[in-house]
Amino acid sequence: MNDQNQNPIPNPSPAPEVQDWREQRRAEHLARHEAHLQRHRGRQYGWMGGVMLILLGFVFLLQNMGINFLTNWWALFILIPAFWAYVAAWDVYQDHGQLTRGAASSLILGLMLTLLSFVFLLNLAINMFWPLLLIAGGLALVLTSLLPS
Q1: Where are the domains of the chain?
Q2: pLDDT tens for residues 94-107?
Q3: What integer pLDDT is reported at residue 37 of this predicted model?
Q4: Model pTM?
Q5: Can you give the pLDDT at residue 149?
Q6: If DSSP states are collapsed to H, E and C, what string results for the chain?
C-alpha cells in the first residue's frame, strides 16, 4: 500500500450541534427567500402608471376649467421616483418585518422628493424651502443611523 496518498489524520467532521445549527440557519434563510419570492411573484407595479395618469388628467381637467393652480405641472414627474421610493420602502419593510435603515432611507427619499415636487407644483419660493430640505436630510441621516441594518 502507498502510505504517501493516505492522510494520517482523518478530517474530523463538525460536531452534530454545529451541523444542526448551520442546517437550521440555512433552512431559515431558504424559507425567508421563498417567502420573498412568493410575495413578489405576482406583484405588478402597473398601478403606479395609473396613478400618474389620473393625476395628470386632474391637472389638465382643472386647467381646462380655468383653474390654473399648477403652472409647473411638469413637477408631477418628480413624483414618479418618489412613488418608486415608497414601493421600495414597503418591500424592504415586508421582507424584514420591521423598519430598517434601508426602508427608512427609501421612505425619507420619497418624502423629500414629494416635498420638492409640491414646492414646484404650488409655485412656492424654493429659496424658502431648500434649507428645510437640508435639515430634513440631516435629521434623516441621524435617525436612520439608529435603526437596525
Answers
A1: 71-145
A2: 888 888 888 888 88
A3: 66
A4: 0.57
A5: 67
A6: CCCCCCCCCCCCCCCHHHHHHHHHHHHHHHHHHHHHHHHHHCCCCHHHHHHHHHHHHHHHHHHHCCCCCCCCHHHHHHHHHHHHHHHHHHHHHHHHCCCCHHHHHHHHHHHHHHHHHHHHHCCCCHHHHHHHHHHHHHHHHHHHHCCCC
